[in-house]
């Protein structure tokens, strides 16, 4: 009758932590329809103020773009997150990016993954705005809530929660 009465219940709520310092903006504000119309999935974007990108969740690196501008991570619960640094940055062919992780690596929240030369990207790409997208959100019954905070601190600020 009292079995399980004093066990701590596991919350179904999960969080995605900011991977970069900057100004948090709605995904709809990204000046690229692939992101703003959520074709790749739900999410949020950050206008970065620093070039250090850290892991937003505990999980596995499932993709590092050959051009180093994007990293995909699968969280322990199966949520797939894409961090896409800037717009039209694929054309930089990796210039201005230093990757610290490889596909298959296990990462923890706050672990450094990528360093970006923001000045170089500002001068040579369309925009430095960085979408953080849940690429499998369209195939999920999870509900996503974006923070109402305006500024992010890498590895600390909760960007999104989901259940």
Automatic annotation (TrEMBL):
> Which residue intervals define the domain PTS EIIA type-1 in the entry?
32-136
**Example GO biological process:** phosphoenolpyruvate-dependent sugar phosphotransferase system
**What subcellular compartments does it reside in?**
Cytoplasm
Q: Name one Pfam family in it.
A: PTS_EIIA_1
One annotated GO molecular function is:
kinase activity
**PROSITE patterns attached to this UniProt entry:** PTS_EIIA_TYPE_1, PTS_EIIA_TYPE_1_HIS
Source domain of life is Bacteria
Instruction: Report one GO cellular component.
Output: cytoplasm
Annotated keywords: Kinase, Phosphotransferase system, Sugar transport, Transferase, Transport
Among PANTHER family, the record links this protein to:
PTS SYSTEM GLUCOSE-SPECIFIC EIIA COMPONENT
Descriptive protein name: PTS glucose transporter subunit IIA
Which species does the entry assign this protein to? Answer: Ornithinibacillus caprae
């Amino acid at each position: 009758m009292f079995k399980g009465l004093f066990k701590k219940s596991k919350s179904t709520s999960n969080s995605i932590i900011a991977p970069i310092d900057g100004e948090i903006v709605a995904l709809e504000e990204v000046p690229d329809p692939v992101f703003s119309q959520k074709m790749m999935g739900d999410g949020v974007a950050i206008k970065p103020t620093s070039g250090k990108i850290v892991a937003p969740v505990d999980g596995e690196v499932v993709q590092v773009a050959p051009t180093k501008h994007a990293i995909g991570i699968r969280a322990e619960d199966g949520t797939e997150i894409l961090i896409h640094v800037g717009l039209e940055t694929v054309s930089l062919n990796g210039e201005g990016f230093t990757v610290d992780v490889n596909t298959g690596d296990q990462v923890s929240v706050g672990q450094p993954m990528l360093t970006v030369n923001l000045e170089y990207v500002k001068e040579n790409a369309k925009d430095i705005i960085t979408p953080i997208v849940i690429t499998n959100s369209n195939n999920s019954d999870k509900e996503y809530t974006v923070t109402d905070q305006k500024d992010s601190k890498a590895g600390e600020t909760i960007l999104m929660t989901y259940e």
